[in-house]
Design brief:
Elements: H1 8-17, E1 28-29, E2 33-44, H2 54-57, E3 64-73, E4 82-85, E5 95-97, E6 121-128, E7 140-145, H3 149-161, E8 178-182, E9 199-205, E10 211-215, E11 227-228, E12 237-238, E13 246-254, E14 260-264, H4 281-290, E15 294-295, H5 305-310, E16 315-329, E17 340-341, E18 344-357, H6 387-397
Parallel strand pairs: 1-17, 2-18, 6-14
Antiparallel strand pairs: 2-3, 3-8, 4-5, 4-9, 6-7, 9-10, 11-12, 13-14, 13-15, 13-16, 16-18
């Protein structure tokens, strides 16, 4: 289990939200700086975020580790500079946190697929649940038509509102007086396969107080998800990933008629791509109770035969949700009458996922697991060139 050191401020928020006032209030200030570290482990075919990214999928495979570092501070400097000094075991050297140049805001992308089929129509067939038989009312059919776009939009909205996920708010440009991130235009190197987060970390710069925290062996990158049962059908299974708090599986493909076919392991129908690869502890617990996320003891979820028949070459993804570690400095004063001046807070989040294609043996994907040295920072050769036709066909059908 990942160690969890919550700040008293967070405990107070949870207590108030439950209708319970803290025994004694304590005045707090800050934090001056907020720092988030997101550690991802991916296996198989690369995807973007929580949803499928077919174009990224065509670039390679294997087991990879990645970091996202985000710093915001209430201080500023004429030429902002900051860096993350990780332990030597990460094998990257210092990671510069660059303040991005502000760009004009881009329009918010529409979550609705566009109707590009014959007559301006397309259908989405949505399945859910593990194993046989598929429940009554499946698949849920959503039709998107240029003749009646409001109907499809209302169906998608109702589907998304059935399951609420609280958006997390990591540091971002504009959320503090100064912001820095990695990777960036100056530095975006790959994390070596043998890279480890275990040890002492230091973040320093000319606009942030020094941020020091230490991660133990149970706070390293999560293990990779190893998928089984996809080469010969839908007996989808996976290993018990250390530190996993829950799992979520999904597929996406297309049938011969050009309909999009999606399936999730959820007990209730949900929109594909609706569950991100990182959930807050509160959301994760709630979604497990609702049957949307599988509990940590789960190591398999057979894909219904109806899904396999409708889209036998669907893309498959399994997410293992990790926990998080929280730190704050300085420690809370024991005297409740003394003001707690919080200098900085740190949140470290973890996730692991694997992606492949139904009917493909994951062992054929290769990757850079176990490779060391400078070559480990270069993309592994793509052993999945045969997928290009499949992905291109799927995109054309959309």
């Amino acid at each position: 289990m990942l160690r969890l050191t919550c700040t008293t401020a967070l405990v107070a928020v949870f207590a108030l939200s439950a209708g319970q006032a803290p025994a004694q209030s304590q005045r707090t200030t800050g934090p001056v700086a907020t720092y988030w570290v997101t550690a991802r482990t991916t296996a198989g075919l690369p995807t973007g975020g929580a949803g499928f990214d077919p174009m990224a999928m065509m670039s390679g495979g294997g087991v990879q580790k990645s970091l996202s570092l985000q710093l915001q501070a209430d201080r500023t400097a004429p030429a902002p500079e900051a860096r993350h000094q990780p332990p030597a075991g990460l094998n990257t050297g210092d990671l510069p946190l660059v303040t991005p140049v502000r760009q004009p805001a881009s329009p918010t992308p529409d979550f609705m697929p566009q109707a590009r089929g014959e007559g301006g129509r397309m259908r989405m067939l949505i399945y859910h649940g593990c194993g046989e038989p598929t429940g009554s009312g499946q698949p849920l059919v959503i039709e998107i038509s240029t003749d009646d776009p409001a109907r499809g939009a209302s169906q998608m909205t109702a589907l998304m509102e059935a399951v609420r996920v609280s958006p997390e708010t990591p540091p971002s440009p504009g959320s503090g007086r100064t912001y820095g991130e990695w990777p960036n235009d100056r530095s975006s190197q790959r994390i070596p396969a043998n890279g480890s987060l275990v040890g002492d970390h230091l973040v320093d710069g000319n606009y942030t107080p020094d941020i020091r925290f230490s991660l133990g062996a149970d706070q390293d990158f999560m293990e990779p998800v190893q998928l089984t049962g996809v080469a010969d059908g839908g007996s989808l299974g996976w290993n018990a990933v250390g530190g996993a708090r829950g799992y979520f599986a999904m597929t996406m493909g297309a049938n011969e008629a050009g309909d999009m076919v999606a399936w999730t392991s959820s007990n209730i129908p949900i929109s594909f791509g609706q569950i991100p690869d990182i959930l807050s502890p509160a959301d994760l617990e709630r979604l497990i109770r609702q049957g949307v996320v599988l509990p940590a003891s789960t190591t398999g979820c057979p894909i219904p035969s109806a899904v396999q028949m409708a889209a036998p070459q669907s893309m498959v993804r399994v997410i293992a949700f990790g926990g998080e570690a929280n730190f704050s400095y300085p420690a809370r004063p024991a005297n409740p009458r003394e003001t707690w001046n919080i200098e900085h807070v740190v949140k470290v989040r973890y996730t692991s996922s694997a992606s492949t294609v139904l009917g493909m043996d994951m062992s054929d994907l290769g990757g850079d697991e176990g490779r060391e040295g400078p070559d480990s920072r270069q993309p592994a050769p793509n052993p999945a060139d045969a997928l290009r036709g499949l992905v291109g066909g799927l995109l054309r059908r959309r």
